[in-house]
Amino acid sequence: MQTPEIFVTDQASDHDINVIGNGLNRFNDAHVGYGDRQPLAVLVRDPLSGEILGGASGRTSLGLLFLDLFHLPETLRGKGIGTEVLRRFEQEGRRRGCCSAVVYTISFQAPAFYERNGWVRFGEVPCDPPGTSRVFLSKAL
């Protein structure tokens, strides 16, 4: 076999990303003896139009709940909806056997929201624009 070509791109296809993800998943499954990763979403829907307005998405794997994305439009914030979405997300993680949860947010986004809901900051990495940072939080479930 010839030496493989290594290149940088910002146009990787879904197939390309799946090759990487599936390879990593096979490696992990062989190491631990099983694969339990599952996607998870808690959605907020307009009752009249049926339109999805926001919510949270992530996954569970090997006893850990990953919260990847969380967004509510401005009009739905400050009404307890976000806290309920987060509560249901955590509840489903517990139901799936997760012992811990992890999320990262940006300092101008929602670290205080997570902290009010029992999440604990365990790391912070400066990023752009200057004065902001990625904030990493976890929660025992």
Automatic annotation (TrEMBL):
Q: Name one GO molecular function term.
A: acyltransferase activity
Domain of life of the organism in this record? Bacteria
Per UniProt, the keywords (alphabetical) are: Acyltransferase, Transferase
N-acetyltransferase domain sequence ranges: 1-141
Top enzyme class, one word, equals transferase
Q: What is its EC number?
A: 2.3.1.-
In its UniProt entry, what is this protein called? Acetyltransferase
Q: The organism's lineage?
A: Bacteria, Pseudomonadati, Pseudomonadota, Betaproteobacteria, Burkholderiales
